[in-house]
Amino acid sequence: MLRISVKIILTSFFLVTLLFTAREAGAKNIKSLFMPGKVISGHAKYENDCSNCHRSFSKESQKSLCLDCHKKIALDLKNKRGYHSKEKRAASTECRQCHKEHKGREYKAVIFDGETFDHRLTDFPLKNGHSGTKCSKCHKKEKKYREAQAKCYACHKKDDTHKGRLGKKCKECHDSRGWAKARFDHKKTDFPLKFKHKKASCAACHPGGKYKKTPLKCVGCHRINDVHNEKYGKKCSDCHKANDWKKFSFDHEKTKFSLEFRHKKVDCHACHKGKFYKDKKLKKTCYGCHKDDDEHKGRYGRECKTCHSPREWGKYKFNHDKTDFPLKDAHRKVTCAKCHQGKAYGVKKVRPCSVCHKKDDVHRGREGRDCESCHNQRAWGKDVVFDHDITNFPLIGLHAVTLCEQCHNRVDYKKVSVKCSSCHKSDDKHKEGLGEECGECHNPNGWRLWSFDHSKNTEYRLEGAHKGLDCAACHKKTLFKKQRKKSATPENCFSCHQDDDLHRGSFGLNCQRCHSTKSFKEIKIRH
Questions:
Q1: Burial, 58: exposed, middle or buried (Cβ in 10 Å; 0-12, 13-18, 19+)?
Q2: Predicted local distance difference test score (pLDDT) of residue 22
Q3: How do residues 307-350 score in pLDDT, each as one tens digit?
Q4: Tell me, what's the pLDDT at 411?
Q5: Cα–Cα distance for residue pair 263/282, rounded to 1 Å
Q6: Is 236 exposed, middle or buried (0-12, 13-18, 19+ CB in 10 A)?
Q7: How far apart are CA 165 and CA 183, in angstroms?
Q8: Rounded to whole angstroms, how far apart are CA atoms 127 and 124?
Q9: Which end of the chain is more exposed for a tag (fewer CB within 10 A), N or C?
């Protein structure tokens, strides 16, 4: 009892002392009474509210509170950049492991040694010439280390002899091995240097150090070397090359008028009488130059090349096979005037057979104008044959030996129905009860040779007692009508077995839960 009384007295004394001290502390938080020491000067304004940096009874959540204030560090960790992301210990441990707190106002929470710091843990590893650079060169006293500029121009602006004329992308020519050792890959520009251009000095094309808006066309630099005085235009590259300005050649194959045979020997001025490339009236057709050589006086049109060639104007030959109507068999003996009764070659479209053979048409136009479907060019009245496979009803099976008159009992061959029922209506024992799509079961090899696989051709497999049923037992309505997207025949058990249902629907419509297709009387309850 004495010990308990002593404990109560000591506890009461401690609480009184604590309350008295809290009262003396004024607005200070009671938690601050347990603070091990003053915080650093940067955190002084948060000292009175411990919840800014601590959560009661949770040490693990302290790092998240730090990152709530130090947002840039949090962003670095998220994007995996900067020192805190690359330094394994900083990325995985709590902040307090490296940055101590409650050590007093003057304590430095960030311990940094410039002599031993590994710059590879930053986004800017020091290489070559940068490796010996003093920290103060890039990191100014009044700024944080992370605020140091990483672009070349920020530090090397004074070293830029171009005075900003080439922009601020210094690394395209310079690197960290040495600022003075500049190299530039001209292949990355729109004008890669080849042949003689490789030996030309930069100033020859870039006078005064001006690199922008440099002319890329030959005439920009070689206007002085143009002995033609621009008579041949400004496309110097058509004849001259970068390997040697004095050696020139023109490839006429690259134009729309390729020079062949006799044309190769013709002098340029024979056709190009004005300025090169600007002469809009330049004649490019045969008739433009050979009008006076035309013995036909324009009667055969102006497509001279159909008969004449550049080899020699006097030798001519016309190949009708190159037209839309090659001459074959009996047509080879027909004279040109027989078909070309007006101006020769004036026919724009191939005329149908009926135009010339109208008098030979015993059908009097009833079979249309596609005479070639039955007739051929060997002789109009010989070997007349019709390929039924080119129609939408190819003849197979017994149809192949059927006489034409059995289906085509009218003069007009085209207006014949291709439906089975149009010919086999009398053979339909179903009296159209199964629709008009006879081909679903029957085939042309024989009307009685029929088969229908209900499991493959439909979505309802016939199993058990369903296999022996007559079609009409389930299909009481006409099948296969085009206007029906899906058969109207019900597929659930109850639709057919309603009379067999002793339960009168009290167990629902899903009969298959207990009954099987082997026999409706066979019952197997599935829980």
A1: exposed
A2: 46
A3: 788 888 877 777 888 788 888 888 888 876 677 665 666 556 66
A4: 59
A5: 15
A6: buried
A7: 17
A8: 9
A9: C
